[in-house]
Amino acid sequence: MNQLNIPPVLVTGATGRIGRLVIDRLLDAGVPVRALVHRPEAASALPPQVEVFTGDLTVPESLDPALKDAGAAFLVWTAPPQTAASVVERLAAHVRRVVFLSSPHRTPHPFFQQPNPMATLHAGIERLIAAAGLESTIIRPGMLASNSSPWWAPTIRAGETVRWPYGAAETAPVDDRDVAAVAALALHRDEHVGGDYVLTGPESLTHAAQVDVIGDALGRRIAFEEMTPDEFRSLSEGTAPGPVIDMLLAAWSAAVGQPAYISTTVADVLGTAPRTFHQWATDHASEFTQGS
Question: What's the pTM value of the predicted model, to 2 decimals?
């Protein structure tokens, strides 16, 4: 046990976009951290004070060593649903608190109400967590600001026109750092037990406007051109499952002409304003520049 007698927190999805940032926030707060990784080499970029365990959500018993004497777990589900019940059962046997990275599938806005296999999975895991009697907090980020990097950075780095469907679809991109900060607080602060937090950025922006914001952060104009849904579906073949592509297209279609849902939760929980998309783009400009 660490010198302050604080039980460690296990972070699943430890090398992913949110999990990695949660680790940093927990360490900043003096909370000891364990990271669950699929392969030991994946942990090479983690801070040296993180205790690394190899495990797999599809093999629930592999989590037992990482959960021993832990106090809480950050759960990011990245596996098929078949082992979810067994994983939650193991969590309940070892830790008292779980913070689950879910989605805003309960939010009554057209963007979040399209048929979505991931939302169905998330809802099922939420039911399992509730039935297990765990202290829990559900984190529901909307569209992540960081999605714009894999979507548009290769094109922008090449100096080409960004082509994308539903340029008029509006979302409120939330900075990954804000999501991680809320999750980290929920993992080690008691007042967030039972929280059900929908997290968004502070402003509604169309896809085309988001590209403009990135251009502003880079100091140059980036051309945007509408792509048909069928073109997008064809170009995306092999990069993501068909149902995921269909879900995105349906959600974007539903968001055209609808101002994005915006919550105040980031400010309410953190006591500071959520980062704007321009802040995110400025801080991540190197991802969009040649040779990055």
Answer: 0.95
